[in-house]
Write a structure and sequence with these properties.
- The structure is a single chain.
- This protein is of the alpha/beta class and 271 residues long.
- It has one domain: 3-Layer(aba) Sandwich (Rossmann fold), CATH 3.40.50.1580.
- Helix content is 37%, strand content 24%.
- It is built from nine helices and ten strands.
- It has a five-stranded mixed β-barrel.
- Strand 3 and strand 4 form a beta hairpin.
- The radius of gyration is 19 Å and the shape is globular.
- The two termini are 33 Å apart.
- It binds S-adenosyl-L-homocysteine.
- The site of S-adenosyl-L-homocysteine has 21 residues, from strand 5, strand 9, strand 10 and helix 9.
- It comes from Rhynchospora tenuis.
């Protein structure tokens, strides 16, 4: 049945929103936001895409250490942000709190068509991961938010499917697996049980937080994660992480470049 004429002339707000989202999905992607947690991970991509640090910091609150690199690559406006060095401790501001804040502020400021959370992760050998493998995460969840009350438990875990991009997967040689996020580099026995329940192949400290913010603000997000250390292996995680960081970062950056090359000239619905 045809809709009454009135609803065509004055579509309900939800219909307008859906139409706008549909339109956004079929126009070429023009602005992307790459979120990275560590300077070592970001530096090679900054040079690869010839990005420059934006001296104008007015889009961020005064005094925050967050850094925005920007530039034009092919037909894309690229914004690469990392939360910078912690003002008190001088180390990279890794983890969910900084990642959420910088993602939120950057989506507000740059209005990206797509968010790419790119970084390193621990991998589970039992799930087929090896050091140097690069994954596109199929789902994300938290493993250290324990709220044993019905429904709050599910809120804490916050499991989400990521934006599906079958064509990127068809084109690029990336592995696929679930990503589990928590604020610790090591793994407590509880974390281990929760990660297993999340059916995760990967463990990081930012992914599910970036996913939460992107979802909240209705921006599609994808997660490119390279394995620096084997969580269920023999080597201590911190040692293995540091040993492999630079080498694995090269694999990560190559994969991100391939993803960005693929995205260029495409619409969200082509991914
Ligand atoms: N010692 C490091 C600390 C980095 S924390 C330093 O030199 O600064 C680890 C970073 O790598 C986080 O951003 C996290 O997302 C990722 N990561 C790599 N392996 C991980 C693992 N096994 N567990 C959790 N996060 C991991």
């Amino acid at each position: 049945m045809a809709p009454p004429e009135d609803s065509v002339a004055n579509p309900p707000p939800e219909a307008e929103e859906a139409a706008a989202a549909g339109e956004a999905n079929t126009k070429p992607i023009s602005t992307i936001l790459i979120v990275m947690a560590m300077h070592t991970e970001a530096a090679p991509l900054v040079s690869k895409f010839k990005l420059v640090e934006d001296p104008d910091r007015s889009m961020f609150p005064k005094g925050v250490p967050w850094v925005r690199y920007r530039g034009k690559y092919k037909d894309l406006d690229i914004n690469l942000v990392w939360p910078g060095k912690d003002p008190n401790f001088g180390v990279d501001s890794v983890g969910t709190v900084s990642a959420s804040l910088v993602t939120y502020a950057s989506i507000q400021a740059f209005n990206p068509d797509l968010v790419i959370d790119a970084g390193t992760a621990g991998g589970f050998r039992a799930k087929g991961a090896s050091v140097g493998d690069v994954y596109l995460a199929s789902a994300v969840a938290f493993h250290d938010r324990r709220i044993p009350i019905p429904v709050f438990d599910l809120y804490g875990i916050g499991a989400k499917q990521t934006f599906s991009c079958p064509n990127i997967l068809k084109e690029l040689n990336l592995k696929v697996g679930n990503l589990s996020t928590g604020d610790s580099l090591d793994m407590s026995p509880h974390d281990e049980t929760a990660i297993l329940a999340n059916e995760a192949t990967l463990k990081d400290m930012e992914g599910a937080a970036v996913a939460y913010v992107a979802d909240l603000l209705s921006v599609p997000a994808i997660f490119v994660k390279a394995v620096t250390d084997i969580v269920d292996g023999e080597k201590p995680t911190a040692e293995e992480f540091l040993q492999n960081l630079v080498l694995v970062t090269a694999a990560l950056d190559q994969a991100v470049t391939q993803v960005v090359d693929f995205i260029s000239g495409k619409c969200i619905s082509d991914l």
